[in-house]
Amino acid sequence: MCVAVTTCTRRCALAGTCSACSRTSGAPLLSELRRVGRNALGDLRRRLEGVSPKVLSQTLKRLEEHALLSRTVYAEVPARVDYELTDLGHSAAEPLRHLRDWVEAHASRD
Questions:
Q1: d(CA 20, CA 30)
Q2: pTM here?
Q3: What is the mean pLDDT of residues 88-99?
Q4: What CATH number belongs to 23-95?
Q5: Using one digit for the tens of pLDDT, what is the confidence trace for 12-54?
Q6: FRET pair for 109, CA 20 to 30 Å: which of 10, 43, 47, 78?
Q7: 47 and 32 in contact (C-beta within 8 Å)?
Q8: Measured between alpha carbons, how far is 101 from 87 in angstroms, rounded to an integer?
Q9: Contact 82, 74 (CB under 8 A)
Q10: Residue 7: predicted pLDDT
Q11: Is 77 left (phi over 0), alpha (psi -120 to 50) or beta?
């Protein structure tokens, strides 16, 4: 769990944002959107193997509430929804990328 979550009060905006990023699917979702850009919900479901549709929907909603991604709904049949990182989301995804790279580089040391 993120240190900020344990040191901030419930009213602290940092705690909520950090919690949204540190959830099981939060960091991979931010990383995927950083890597591929704007993406439809169905594409995200396929790309994030092992993440249930319910958890993905909850994570998308949580990240949108914290202004880390934007959601665009198109008036089409069938309905189409795209997600993309906001500037804040891009700034959050960058350190996560570095952390992922570090973990991958050192994973073989176990």
A1: 10
A2: 0.73
A3: 86
A4: 1.10.10.10
A5: 555 555 555 555 678 888 888 998 888 888 898 888 888 888 9
A6: 47
A7: yes
A8: 21
A9: yes
A10: 52
A11: beta
